[in-house]
Amino acid sequence: MATHAYAAHHAAAPQGFIRKYIFSLDHKVIGIQYICLALFSVFVGMALSILMRIHLVWPNAKIPFIEGGIMSPEQYLALVTMHGTIMIFMVLTTAPQSGFGNYFLPIQIGAADMAFPVLNMLSFWTTFLSLAVMLAAFFVTGGAPIAGWTSYVPLSAIGQITGPGEGAGQTLWVVGVAIFCGAALMGALNFITTIVDLRTKGMSLMRMPLTVWAWFVTAILGLLAFGVLLAACILLLLDRVGGTSFFIPGGLVVTDQIINHKGGSPLLWQHLFWFFGHPEVYIAILPGMGVASHVLSTFSRKPIFGYRAMAYALCAIGFLGFCVWGHHMFVSGMSPYSAFAFSILTMSIGVPSAIKTFNWLGTLWGGKIQFHSPMLYAIGFVSLFVTGGLSGLFLAQPSLDLYLHETYFVAAHFHLVMGVAAIFGMFAAMHFWFPKMSGKMMNEPLAKTHFWLTFIGVYAIFMPMHYIGLAGQLRRYSSAESSAALQKFIPVHEFMTYAAIFTVSVQFLFLFNLIWSLWRGKKAEMNPWHGTTLEWSIPSPPPHDNFAGGERTIYRGPYEFSVPGVAEDYVPQYQAPEKVGKAH
Amino acid sequence: MPGAVAEELEIQRGDRGPLGPPADGGEEGGGGEARRVPRRAYFTAISLALAAIVMFFMALTSSFIVRRGMGGDWQPVRLPRILWLNTAVLLASSVTIEAARRKPARGFAGFRVWWGITTALGFAFLAGQLLAWHQLAAAGVYMASNPMSRFFYVLTASNGAHLGGGLLALLYVAFRPWTPGAGARITQDTAAELASIYWHFMDGLWVFLFLLLTLGR
Known about the structure:
The structure holds two protein chains of two kinds.
Chain A: H1 4-7, H2 17-22, H3 27-57, H4 73-92, H5 94-108, H6 117-136, H7 168-197, H8 210-241, E1 253-254, E2 257-258, H9 266-300, H10 307-321, H11 336-348, H12 350-364, H13 373-395, H14 398-404, H15 408-438, H16 444-470, H17 484-487, H18 490-520
Antiparallel strand pairs in A: 1-2
Chain B: H1 2-15, H2 39-70, H3 82-102, H4 108-138, H5 147-174, H6 188-215
Helix pairs in contact in B: 1-6, 2-5, 2-6, 3-4, 3-6, 4-5, 5-6
């Protein structure tokens, strides 16, 4: 380890508001900026989903902010598109990885900052620009795009003629996503370099906290996946504005007009998109897995069950994530032999996922469990991951998928497994690390109330969704009133809408707790949870340069809880062997 | 061994003690801007950047191969002959950049001349590519003309953009002070080595794309 010689000197914090809080180079400030961006985006995304749910059950309701007051089917699709896009790119990709990762990765490996602070700042502001461009789609002629977050061609490529949002709105979407690719690539490069080259003395790969392992694998996925999406976006943009036909097939007639493009392949877009899109779902969920492992071990007061297996399972999921994109395309007319291969590979992801799940349960088994709020969220994460993950095995069968494709069953599956589970991972992270980030404790009774209400709420939304999916309702229909077959589902839709309104309202409890605790929370000590990793060795909140120029040495693995013959029930990674107290 | 010289330079710098925070109190933040990351971090970063670039071009390449395989309306495009000259120019620039790097690190003059020639060759390549576009356009082949021409323009433009980034790096190294100030994070040797790794890679990338366009025509 040659790194430490370089890292050691004390640096003063920058003065002045702009350098300190806006164009900051400090990984902690940038992490908080990402978290704030994700918080803003998640409330926008939730507002869109509530508007959708309201429209599904009261199609004639007057809705504010909607042109004409009553939502048209196209406006409904615009909400679907923007809800998905904002949630996936601006919430699930930014908060778990760029937000919490930025803040805690350097600290957990004993580095003073990310390897390239300027690149880090640039990455955040590029993300911000991307969000601004995407949101601008709401305010242009025709409004937001209607092609869904997957932007399938030809709908997304031909322009205004295919729908109101398909003019300027869709162009802004493509540009926004392309900008996001740039931001994500810069971030991924920085993360990997930091982990590879800036670990402190003694921090071998197999002593890294599992959070760091998760951020590491996620960054590798991001590095390899976002370049492909960028290429796809450039080709799509050229099809839209450059007159080319990479994706647009010949002979299209839309609203009685012949489309003057020929020779493109719409399937090519699907391949390129899902080659990115499938790793993307692991980009969303892996950091949550890392946090869940970390929190479960800490509050079970037990070493994580099967540390190496956990680390290898993360790598296996990351690797397999690149081999299964075809399972999104079973109905595209692909050869049954390809479908068979994609199906087998998809189901094989069940193996590392099961390793992780059983190891989480093994960690809990026989532990001295402390039900602090982060622990509740981590257990909630495991529950949601299993519930949502199991339906993935159904969808991995091409023969079943022919029926279930594009139904609410799919929507229920991915919302549980990558949406809500990942969000619970973030709740766990926020409640676990809030004392470190702010120096204040969060209000526990409020947090626990929020956990239970949210946990019940999300199951109430998404469990019934499986049933209407199995019963055959397609997920992009803006109304269930048009057909007698669908009308039977309206009471179920009403239930889900009430559950959604309830769950979203409960989130204000979280927001209130966050703000209240920042302002009035009980003061946090350095290590309130009796954790073992490096972030608990420095003051709360950490000083500008993390370790004040000092350099930490790591003596052992990250989860040494309840070690026999030791006085305390935890031995920090950074405690020298001679300082570990013996039990009397 | 330029690498060894660079290590030595870095060690000498290190011997001066940890390059303390600038006198103004280390305004730059982030754990201190003068904080040094090990030299190898830059090589990790450049390898990762190249991996991402490979993925980008592989996406375009596989699109090209898929589209070529669809056949039907494929029309071969006669590639301008100037592309052969451009390729030769770019290959020559890889030789000259090596010549620059092999000059002893402190023999500035030789380094500068060869580095300057490399930069000039880089600009010549880009100008040649623009000329090739011009010739194609004059022959009535535009980007939207046919399936092959789309890929030709997209691949050459993407390559040109990445190569342009390489040229900026060459210019940065050329105009960088020979003895960087205390705030600098890398030595001139490291900067030159990183720029040349990128440059060689761009060279290889163009050769690959040129072969793809020629053979896949």
